[in-house]
Amino acid sequence: MEYIAERITLSPDLCNGKPTIRGLRITVKTILEFLSVGESIDEILMQYPDLVKEDIDACLKFASDLMDRNYVIKEVAA
Known about the structure:
Blueprint: E1 2-5, E2 8-10, E3 20-21, H1 28-36, H2 41-47, H3 53-66
Antiparallel strand pairs: 1-2, 2-3
């Protein structure tokens, strides 16, 4: 398992290699999806008692850091 950001881990053997929180079977994507539909941090913490507020903050920072990269759209043959 490799830490790719504070509290965010990556392992090919866990959740199909998707970024997870501290090696738990909770993906960053899951937390971001809950937040995107209006769930509060407190509601998420009640549903996932292994998490702490700092884990959710780390998910948001991780997503924000990804948006700081430059992306190029390349045309692909159809």
